[in-house]
């Protein structure tokens, strides 16, 4: 009998969000706060010969002007530390920070920047990742293997950040033995997370030398470590104060401006705030990697998949610093974007390459949407080539219970075919189309949740109030609310008795990765569940003692303690008895737990044996005269576990879908010779309220999963299949296959012109 | 850096301030374009002279002989919602409704829009087919500049230093012509890739074109009339063949740019597509078969 | 030079020392601590800074503070009356119409400006009225639902 888990309860932080009283990093004020700003490189690759800061320093109101000469020779990063705080000796992309100022206000800071002059000597640059790995290409980093945190395997190939291979079986052999082999290459562009809150931080150094940080960052404990490493201080000397994050989608996990902000604070002796302008965000944020993905697939005459070989070339941009996982690659490359087919032999090689473009980072399902676009587009191509309905082709090849996952290991409760069946039913797949140039496309992928070692602390004071203290900032997913629900559920008390407190890293249990990889409901959820059950056990033991009854006769039900036995049940309200218990022991209940699967080494993700499947059908209508694609409808079916909160759960699905539409048809950081051309949100286009189609969600409830109460992850999966489903629908509508995202009207227009036949390749 | 801001109450005060400030002064109306330009550092006027409190600059007047005057401070929203303009110049209402987004339409003004002359703006194409004039005032007096001569280049107009647009005049718009504005965008709310305004009058047979005017935005350094294309259609029966010819000629009259959102070649093709569509739509409206307000984009 | 100006915000008169080029957004946030108006793109595209000026939704990043002197300004801080949330605020919570909350005050004000003028909008009218406000989290569906629920008197 559940109390609040599964209920559509409003967000615990609802009131502060709708009333505007939530204090984001930009709202942090401090006496004497200065404004920090950066001067950025106008060149993609150049030696810095000289920087003249004298005029800037003498401007009234300027309190600090820094170049790399003022800073220790350290580099920063989430895993590989290859990014200087300010460019040292040379710049590697347009937008790299070369100098910084702290001034009394923004206008003065900007004026000071305009007074700094930099002499550069331009170097040959390289922008295409396939060109960057050729012999003789300009060398962007002289010795990347020497960087702290560099992956062990750095090859002798030019400009390689990271190279990984994952395989099961012998894909080469499988391809040789196949009856038919298909090979295609797909491209995706740089895509910005486009959270509405730009990167913001405030740094202040207190009288004992501790560094206080408020930042739009979703991983406070990792940030603390990253900053400590950059500053060469102990982690305990850095205190990261948690603030709500104004949208993350993977982009808010790096130190970004924080180390620089610290040095500005140090040199000026005053607290400093830095807010990136949106142009800076688009020029020098940490967007999703552009990619070139080739897929070679062998099938039997029957249509069974035999072998697949995938090669990914990811454009890392000028630095690898924004990639957090140990192999400095993208997680999607480990799972081939979440491929969900039964396939005897598969191999994926992934190479991240330095170029003189904006350094790339994570975005919602890092690597997944790119690879999924490639694979699921190709599955359609194959189905059409062998004249099988794309749904039937997938049905034939999707994994089912008992099958080995594509890369080995095991999955429990496989619902891939069920998800596809449901989406086909709900979407009207196969129904007659109302007009010509209407098409439908399908795609199926899977994604499992991440794991992070993480801790939670529950305090129950003598007034009976329950406080959950934990170190994951609310970045929008509603995680605080489901954690509140878990506590209330375990103690069988009303939600409003449970308060969520965040505070700062010096007084919180380590929350590991913070949020990311669809992991919070799982990792933090389990830590909170464990803490709640421990405190419940303590309460019951103490209650038994104080009431003089056997513990087995006492339980927590419906907002109180229920004592059975005797003639009549007795119920004592929660707060009343807890007050007595706390008074009796002379202190609050205070339980801290850590959730740390041995498989999930601290600070490292690993994936469990349960995944969740997602099948989508999109319906589009193409205007053949313009090439414009109207997305009429998306139906998405999800194999979900227990849903802890239907509101936040559905929010993740819909938000991901609309981001998927952006990725499919409009989003692109246009970069020309390393220069981002789309420098404001009018040019960098994300969907507006007038660009959304009809959405329909089908949920297959299948309680099984690592999240408390047998839930599954939902944060990233819905974005993954969208682009392929749309590209497949366009092909269905027009016979034209697009291999490159975004599918703009113009690209489709020219392809329509070229294609004389209506058959899809 | 802007150091002072003035809100004079008469147009004579406005022009005398502009005269006094010379290059350092700049007029601000709704501010929806100017403040963005200032934010990007593209202009940095020292003195801003606001038209906000100038008496008589808001609102739309109709003279006894049917001429319309739209005051400089009239917002896109007011243009779009004016029942007078909906009756007399639906093509302009449609264009105003498609400008940017709600907050921009709320504050942005029609005069500010033409003075900014940004590529892909909506009202100019509609104003061109209405043969509108800009009423320009300076310390030296007043002059009317036909819009056909007002736009001179990207972000450039015939406005002289010290001059301000007081109003836009539309000489008695024909009551027997159907007006359509179509806008082609990459994403809702964007500037037009192509904006096409058509004013069309049919002969009483319902087949022949008596008069047509075609205005184009977003496809040349300045918004323009497709005079050659108009000439081909005028007097002829409207059918597929002639529409293709009209569209092709219109395509040859434009001079679009290539940028991150489209190549010049594609924009030319789209001119042809949307000219044809706008004329067809206008025929439908003339024949009472189509709604005046098409799907807004 | 700065001028002391008097603004009418949320039904109250407030004073602030304002420069000629100060934007309403900067004055609200930095001088009056009304931080519910958020700084996003600062170039009119995102709408996170929206407030209601003289009954109309505007981007406060594109309004000179001096030009706002004689008009009533409503910010998100003015919606709660006597500690009670505005129905739109309630609806945004109940419908899940926000996630990170950054664009939310602006979205709610956009909904208010619409409903004040048109109490029973169609879905198309809701979309049209919110076309200057970007949300990256929700996919907008729930925002439309929340506004429609209030219009229908359900909240």
List the helices and strands and how they pair.
The complex is a heterotrimer of chains A (761), B (297) and C (155).
Chain A: H1 14-18, E1 34-40, E2 46-52, H2 54-57, E3 62-67, E4 75-76, E5 83-84, E6 90-91, E7 97-103, H3 106-114, E8 117-122, H4 129-132, E9 160-168, H5 171-177, E10 180-188, E11 200-205, E12 211-215, H6 220-231, E13 238-241, H7 258-268, E14 272-275, H8 278-284, E15 290-299, E16 305-317, E17 345-354, H9 368-385, H10 390-397, H11 416-427, E18 438-447, E19 454-460, E20 466-470, H12 479-491, E21 498-501, H13 520-547, E22 554-557, E23 560-563, E24 570-573, H14 574-585, E25 589-595, E26 612-622, E27 629-640, H15 646-666, E28 671-672, E29 675-676, E30 694-701, H16 722-734, H17 745-754
Parallel strand pairs in A: 1-14, 12-13, 16-17, 20-21, 27-30
Antiparallel strand pairs in A: 1-7, 2-6, 2-8, 3-7, 4-5, 9-17, 10-15, 11-12, 11-14, 15-16, 18-26, 19-20, 19-25, 22-23, 23-24, 26-27, 28-29
Chain B: E1 4-6, H1 11-21, E2 25-28, H2 34-39, E3 47-50, E4 60-62, E5 68-71, H3 76-81, H4 83-88, H5 90-97, H6 102-107, H7 110-116, H8 123-129, E6 133-138, E7 141-146, H9 147-150, E8 151-153, E9 156-157, E10 164-170, E11 178-184, E12 194-202, E13 209-217, E14 224-225, H10 227-233, H11 240-253, H12 264-286
Parallel strand pairs in B: 1-3, 2-3
Antiparallel strand pairs in B: 4-5, 5-10, 6-7, 6-10, 8-9, 11-12, 12-13, 13-14
Chain C: E1 3-9, E2 12-18, H1 24-31, E3 50-53, E4 56-59, E5 72-74, H2 87-95, H3 104-117, H4 123-129, H5 141-151
Parallel strand pairs in C: 1-5
Antiparallel strand pairs in C: 1-2, 3-4, 3-5
């Amino acid at each position: 009998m559940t109390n609040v888990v599964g209920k559509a309860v409003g967000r615990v932080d609802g009131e502060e969000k709708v009333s505007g009283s939530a204090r984001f990093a930009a709202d942090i004020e401090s006496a004497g706060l200065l404004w920090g700003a950066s001067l950025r490189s106008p060149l993609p690759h150049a030696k810095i010969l000289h920087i003249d800061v004298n005029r800037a320093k003498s401007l009234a109101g300027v309190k600090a002007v820094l170049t790399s000469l003022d800073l220790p020779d350290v580099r920063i990063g989430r895993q590989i530390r290859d990014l200087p705080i300010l460019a040292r000796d040379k710049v590697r992309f347009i937008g790299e920070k070369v100098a910084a100022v702290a001034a009394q206000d923004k206008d003065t800071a900007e004026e000071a920047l305009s007074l700094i002059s930099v002499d550069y000597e331009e170097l040959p640059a390289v922008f295409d990742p396939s060109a960057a790995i050729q012999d003789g290409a300009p060398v962007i980093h002289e010795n990347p293997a020497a960087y702290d945190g560099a992956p062990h395997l750095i090859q002798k190939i030019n400009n390689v950040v990271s190279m990984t291979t994952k395989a099961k079986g012998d894909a080469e052999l499988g391809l040789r033995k196949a009856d038919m082999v298909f090979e295609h290459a797909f491209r995706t562009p740089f895509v910005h997370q486009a959270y509405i809150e730009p990167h913001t931080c405030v740094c202040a150094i207190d009288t004992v030398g501790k560094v206080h940080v408020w930042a739009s960052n979703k991983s406070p404990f990792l940030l603390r470590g990253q900053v400590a490493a950059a500053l060469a201080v102990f982690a305990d000397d850095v205190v990261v104060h948690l603030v709500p994050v104004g949208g993350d989608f993977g982009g808010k996990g790096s130190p970004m401006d924080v180390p620089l902000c610290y040095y500005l604070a140090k040199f000026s002796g005053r607290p400093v705030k830095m807010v990136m302008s949106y142009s800076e965000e688009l020029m020098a944020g940490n967007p999703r990697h552009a990619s070139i993905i080739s897929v070679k697939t062998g099938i039997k005459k029957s249509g069974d998949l035999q072998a697949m070989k995938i090669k990914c070339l990811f454009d890392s941009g000028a630095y690898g610093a924004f990639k957090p996982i140990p192999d400095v690659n993208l997680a999607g490359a480990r799972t081939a974007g979440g491929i969900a087919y039964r396939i005897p032999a598969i191999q994926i090689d992934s190479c991240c390459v330095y170029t003189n473009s904006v350094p790339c980072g994570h975005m919602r399902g890092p690597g997944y949407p790119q690879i999924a676009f490639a694979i699921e587009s190709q599955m359609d191509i194959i189905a059409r080539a062998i004249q099988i309905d794309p749904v039937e082709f997938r049905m034939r090849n999707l994994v089912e219970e008992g099958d080995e996952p594509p890369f080995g290991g095991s999955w429990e409760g496989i619902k891939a075919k069920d998800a596809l069946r449901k989406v086909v039913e709900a979407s009207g797949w196969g129904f007659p189309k109302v007009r010509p140039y209407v098409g439908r496309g399908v795609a199926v992928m899977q994604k499992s949740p991440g794991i992070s070692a993480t801790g939670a602390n529950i305090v129950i004071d003598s007034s009976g109030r329950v406080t959950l203290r934990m170190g994951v900032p609310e970045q929008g997913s509603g995680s605080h609310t489901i954690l509140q629900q878990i506590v209330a559920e375990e103690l069988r008390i009303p939600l409003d008795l449970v308060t969520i407190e965040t505070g700062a890293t010096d007084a919180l249990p380590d929350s590991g990765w913070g949020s990311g990889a669809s992991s919070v409901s799982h990792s933090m959820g389990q830590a909170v569940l464990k803490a709640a059950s421990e405190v419940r056990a303590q309460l019951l033991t103490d209650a038994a003692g104080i009431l003089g009854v056997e513990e087995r006769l006492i339980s927590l039900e419906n907002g109180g303690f229920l004592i059975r036995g005797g003639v009549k049940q007795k119920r004592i309200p929660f707060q009343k008895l807890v007050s007595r218990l706390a008074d009796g022991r002379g202190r609050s209940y205070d339980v801290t737990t850590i959730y740390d699967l041995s498989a999930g080494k601290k600070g490292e993700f690993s994936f469990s044996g349960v995944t969740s499947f997602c099948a989508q059908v999109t319906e589009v209508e193409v205007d053949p005269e313009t090439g414009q694609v109207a997305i009429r409808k998306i139906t998405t079916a999800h194999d979900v576990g227990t849903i802890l909160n239907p509101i936040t759960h559905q929010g993740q699905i819909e938000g991901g879908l609309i981001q998927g539409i952006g990725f499919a048809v409009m989003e692109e950081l246009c970069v020309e010779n390393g220069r981002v051309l789309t420098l404001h949100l009018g040019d960098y286009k994300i969907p507006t309220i007038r660009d959304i189609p009809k959405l329909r969600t089908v949920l297959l409830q299948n309680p099984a999963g690592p999240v408390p109460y047998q839930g599954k992850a939902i944060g990233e999966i819905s974005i993954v299949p969208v682009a392929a489903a749309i590209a497949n629908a366009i092909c269905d509508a027009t016979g034209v296959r697009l291999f490159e995202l975004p599918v703009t009207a113009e690209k489709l227009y020219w392809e329509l012109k070229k294609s004389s036949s209506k058959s899809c390749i | 850096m802007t150091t002072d801001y003035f809100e004079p109450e008469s147009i004579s005060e406005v022009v005398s301030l502009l005269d006094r400030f010379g290059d350092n002064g700049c007029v601000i109306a709704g501010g929806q374009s100017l403040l963005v330009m200032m934010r990007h550092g593209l202009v940095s006027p020292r003195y801003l002279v606001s038209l906000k409190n100038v008496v008589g600059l808001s609102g739309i007047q109709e003279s006894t002989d049917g001429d319309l005057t739209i005051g400089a401070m009239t917002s896109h929203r007011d243009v779009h919602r004016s029942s007078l303009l909906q009756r007399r110049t639906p093509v302009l209402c449609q264009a105003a409704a498609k400008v940017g987004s709600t907050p921009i339409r709320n504050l942005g003004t029609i005069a500010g829009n033409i003075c900014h002359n940004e590529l892909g703006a909506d009202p100019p194409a509609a104003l061109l087919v209405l043969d509108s004039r800009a009423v320009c005032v300076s310390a030296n007096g007043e002059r009317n500049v036909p819009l056909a001569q007002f736009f001179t280049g990207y972000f450039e107009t015939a406005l002289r230093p010290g001059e301000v647009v007081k109003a836009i005049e539309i000489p008695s718009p024909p009551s027997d012509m159907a007006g359509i504005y179509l806008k082609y965008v990459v994403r809702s709310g964007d500037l037009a890739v192509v904006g096409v305004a058509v004013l069309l009058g049919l002969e009483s047979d319902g087949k022949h074109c008596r008069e047509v005017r075609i205005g184009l935005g977003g496809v040349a350094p300045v918004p323009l009339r497709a005079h050659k294309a108009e000439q081909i259609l005028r007097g002829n029966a409207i059918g597929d063949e002639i529409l293709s010819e009209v569209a092709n000629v219109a395509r040859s009259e434009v001079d679009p740019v290539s940028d991150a959102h489209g190549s010049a070649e594609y924009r030319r093709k789209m001119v042809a597509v949307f000219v044809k569509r706008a004329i067809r739509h206008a025929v439908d409206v003339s024949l009472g078969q189509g709604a005046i307000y098409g799907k807004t984009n | 030079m700065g001028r002391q100006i008097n603004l009418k915000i949320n039904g109250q008169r407030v004073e602030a020392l304002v420069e000629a080029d100060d934007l309403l957004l900067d004055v609200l946030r930095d001088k009056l601590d009304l931080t519910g108006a958020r700084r996003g793109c600062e170039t009119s595209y995102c709408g996170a800074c929206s407030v209601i000026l003289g009954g109309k939704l505007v981007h406060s990043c594109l309004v000179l503070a001096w030009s706002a002197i004689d008009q009533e300004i409503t910010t998100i801080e003015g919606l709660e009356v006597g500690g009670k949330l505005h129905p739109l605020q309630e609806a945004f919570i109940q419908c899940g119409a926000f996630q990170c909350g950054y664009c939310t005050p602006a979205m709610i004000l956009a909904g208010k400006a619409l409903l004040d003028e048109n109490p029973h909008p169609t879905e198309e009218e809701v979309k049209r009225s919110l076309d200057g406000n970007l949300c990256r989290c929700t996919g907008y569906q729930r925002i439309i639902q929340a506004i429609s629920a209030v219009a229908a008197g359900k909240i």
